[in-house]
Specification:
Blueprint lengths: L4 H15 L16 E4 L2 E5 L12 H14 L7 H5 L2 H13 L7 E6 L2 H12 L7 E6 L4 H13 L2 E6 L5 H8 L5 E7 L11 H10 L2 E6 L14 H5 L6 E6 L9 E6 H10 L1 H4 L6 H15 L1 H20 L6 E2 L6 E7 L1 H13 L2 E2 L2 E2 L9 E6 L6 H17 L3
Parallel strand pairs: 2-12, 4-5, 4-6, 6-7, 7-8
Antiparallel strand pairs: 1-2, 3-9, 8-9, 10-11, 11-14, 13-14
Length: about 400
């Protein structure tokens, strides 16, 4: 019996991936999320988690999730528009809307299972506004979920796509100035997930106002971390507009799972009608919604302020101690601190060496980042100690000297 064509083709294409050192693999963690973990019984210091405030294993959230399950059960039972939307979802969405009320007039929030789902839901639904052509302006380094949302939008209607560099907005303004399309949407990360820098939100909002566009911001890596109360990049950059669609993730700094889209109440009403991934997905567990509600209260309260202060202190300590000659530590003031080393081979070699020394920082390679821009995407947490950060700085300095070029 001959092997199916598909399996033969998969073998051939996986061989190419192997030759280019791009094969991805899964590593299973034995312990709860934290800075000190175990993989296969081996202890490692993790500098790769998005648990920026160290809340993913916090006793108060463990208790909240348990209490939520006791009070509301474990599953929702259906999609939000059938019977899966519970009163605790309403309470959570009202709380999430309140976090952005200072930046978005008449704000309303919608709770999603994941940030990926939230982004593709919002973009595909927004592209259906009106009967004419839509122009979408997407930042070149946007997250894959935004890119895929745009791809899906282009597949369902008449969409013109324009890519822009968030470091140089003159090109974006030139395109907007000459765009006669009635509906325009600018889409950007808030904190860029692979570089760690911030989008120029004030400047982007100015362009959106000037050329009558909506501005969608994926603040997956900003919510909980940026701003006085941890409300994210809109609070941090002090903007306010009914043109903004804000997406915040609850599986990173918030320490749990899920995401939300917050916008003017009319936009949220439109998403409920037109966002197919939202309409046809089973609603998230009400127990999870209860725990997220507790997490948001922690983030905006005294504990959240203490954790953000500790995180920013750790970022400053890392930047002071991480000085490289051959490698390029990208300029970032956020918890994401990438070290660009160039080739896939170098990135893999460095990640393996760190693993042997007790550190877990995976190599990030194309297509996640551009070719010849392979890197270690190092992330810091409020839970890291001064000694752990200083130890990593010393190890990396030694490896830069000892590893072959």
């Amino acid at each position: 019996m001959h092997m199916p064509f598909a399996l033969n083709q998969i073998d051939a294409e996986l061989a190419i991936i192997d030759r280019e050192l791009l094969r991805r693999s899964i590593r299973s963690v034995d312990t709860p999320c934290g800075t000190e973990i175990q993989i296969g019984g081996k202890p490692l210091l993790a500098f790769c988690s998005n648990d920026y405030l160290g809340l993913a294993n916090h006793p108060k959230l463990i208790a909240a999730l348990s209490e939520g399950a006791r009070r509301f059960g474990t599953g929702s039972g259906a999609s939000h528009l059938i019977s899966g939307h519970h009163a605790i979802h309403d309470e959570l969405e009202a709380k999430l809307a309140s976090t952005q009320a200072g930046a978005i007039p008449n704000a309303r929030a919608l709770f999603f299972s994941t940030g990926y789902l939230a982004n593709i839901s919002a973009i595909t639904a927004l592209s259906l506004i009106g009967k004419s052509k839509t122009s979408i302006y997407s930042a070149a380094l946007n997250h894959a979920s935004l890119i895929d949302g745009v791809r899906l939008a282009r597949g369902q209607g008449s969409v013109d796509l324009h890519i822009f560099d968030h470091h140089h907005l003159a090109g974006l303004e030139d395109k907007l100035r000459n765009d006669l399309t009635p509906f325009k949407l600018i889409v950007t990360d808030g904190v860029f997930s692979m570089d760690g820098d911030l989008a120029p939100v004030q400047e982007l909002l100015h362009l959106a106002n000037q050329y009558d566009a909506l501005l969608m911001i994926d603040d997956a890596h900003g919510f909980g971390v940026l701003g006085k109360h941890g409300y994210g990049i809109l609070e941090d950059q002090e903007v306010c507009s009914d043109r903004i669609i804000y997406m915040g993730t609850l599986g990173k700094a918030a320490g749990l799972n899920g995401a939300f889209v917050c916008a003017h109440e009319k936009i949220i009403a439109w998403l409920i009608q037109k966002a197919r991934p939202y309409i046809y997905s089973t609603a998230s567990s009400p127990a999870l919604a209860f725990a997220v509600l507790r997490s948001v209260s922690l983030i905006e309260g005294e504990l959240g302020q203490e954790l953000r202060a500790r995180l920013h202190s750790n970022i400053a300590l890392w930047k002071e101690g991480s000085i490289f000659i051959r490698w390029n530590r990208l300029k970032s003031d956020t918890a994401i601190q990438p070290i660009v080393v160039g080739s896939n081979a170098t990135a893999l070699q460095l990640a393996r060496a760190l693993d042997q020394l007790g550190y877990w920082i995976p190599a990030i390679r194309p297509p996640t980042v551009p070719k010849e821009m392979a890197r270690l995407r190092m992330t810091l947490s409020a839970a890291h100690t001064k000694e752990q950060i200083q130890g990593l700085c010393k190890v990396l300095s030694d490896l830069e000297t000892s590893l072959p070029k």
